[in-house]
């Protein structure tokens, strides 16, 4: 009788854990759109190729031939503080510290046709419009705003490859849809290389745009369909006078001419509208062809039911969000599920519905048996985002590694991606961190491709002597300061990457490779100055650079950081770092100093992406190099201090407001840090199957794994005051080494933290 009662209870418990909840309600895409978060508020679906979002200004990348620092504020195209909207474009980065994209800007207007965007101070001088946040609605997969100047309501939603617009017009015989093919993010005078537009009929337009920006050979094709016929259309060309234009001058190409080409074009489409009439647009993208763009459109959105597409987008988001179900306060739920939302935006789909994509060799390829992805911001995302995928999105992680291998195969330089973007490598930031992503996926059993071929690609990339000082690094064991402005950070990051390669080689029993790269992984020691206790630039003659300030971010050999933060960047061997810094007691004291010191403004005055909000003492959470540092207390006898700092970071650096992120979200890295830490564990060294334990913020979390199993985290007596861990049990057995393994999660089970207001010393 007892057995009959227990079994249904167990089944019911399992059902409740996996039952769908309405989690979209907790996603606030407006978080991070102010200050340094650089997120966008518009409509996209998980890992979608289309990111349909508003732009709020038209700043140029350069002014008078020099870099315009203000453009940095517009990496996502939208800045919460602005009062006007210039239109809605279809491609955006989420949370990056550099930018591109902003393709195919659409703006609805009425009245006298204006094809210039106007200015923020005088929006009525152009097609831009004033707006109010009070009339703005921002949800996962949906964006709505009232354009005050023309009394038009704009609504946006999306599928994977298609953006859908719905514009509610007033009564007018002068309603217009503007398609600005010159607009873009990080724009400049000659960014658009060529544009082509073909008006197929009175509801269908196709074309393409090639740009030279962060990606230098990026071509995006489109198909644009209207829900009602336009009565007139035309273009304005802003091209400079060319030496030779052929004989196209025989035609009047400015009005109702079906084939347009040039560098600088703007199109307009005229309509008669009734009061409250909705004009809808489907706008599909393709990396391959106009034909593929049209096929993407017809496959993904067959009709004109905007609400159906919106519901489909939000249902898709809800399914993804339900992969983790947490019990915590309302504000923490908003932070958690917005972080989960942001972490599932990038990388982005780079494959048409027929499997085709354009490769680095500019040829057309077909992804056989996988989805090809782009937007790999690897200097950021190898740390927590890709390890997060190996738990939450193993199928997609497998495809992402295959995408990196395809990148390698198509690369003329035979290198794995550094920063992959639309069949280009932007070569942004340092390290060769794709090797970390590959090693982590293979070691954790995510990748089902040829692991030995992946290792060969890692080795070849790591031996590319003419890239970023690798030759010096291989010969000397460090990069001389005279040869690189980021010599120290490059050496440290290469050393970690080499350790990841060594772990992969060890798993594959290729001990010759293991021995070579485990030796290289010790190169961090060559930049450690035992006299000062800091990582320090070293000259070619072997001496340390004399002019040195560990607080300074300029001219000290580091990228996006200083020596105080980078001196802790040995994630693969914290025990040895503790030893060279004088042992556990002195190491803990160094960590204490980092979190408690005062960093004067002068030491980050020249960094674009760090403000006071992103700093705790001297610890910079708004940039990634120190993201693992709070967990290093686990290698001391004062573990409780790390627990307190982790909770402090969670509460200080993440808030449910537009300015709620302490730095760039960086394609989901900041968000992944939050979710890992909120659940009580973190991958200090990806490439290992070990996670370090911290201090969970949630009361309870149920991870619904792709293999059908569940992993539960429970924090007993957790509260804002009870941040200290007294005891941890894994499936009822006490953990004493402050870590769990990947298999502990994927096999399913329960991790229980017992929390208290008093530290366990």
Automatic annotation (TrEMBL):
Its cofactor is Ca(2+). Residues 1-19 form the signal peptide. InterPro entries: 6-hairpin_glycosidase_sf, GH-type_carb-bd, GH92_a_mannosidase_put, GH92_N, Glyco_hydro_92, PNGase. The keyword Calcium applies. Residues 292-756 form the Glycosyl hydrolase family domain. The keyword Nucleus does not apply. GO terms for biological process: carbohydrate metabolic process; glycoprotein catabolic process. Residues 26-286 form the Glycosyl hydrolase family 92 N-terminal domain. Keywords: Calcium, Hydrolase, Signal. One of its GO terms (cellular component) is cytosol. GO terms for molecular function: carbohydrate binding; peptide-N4-(N-acetyl-beta-glucosaminyl)asparagine amidase activity. NCBIfam families: aman2_put (TIGR01180). PANTHER family: PEPTIDE N-GLYCANASE PNGASE -RELATED, SECRETED PROTEIN. Monomer. This is GH92 family glycosyl hydrolase.
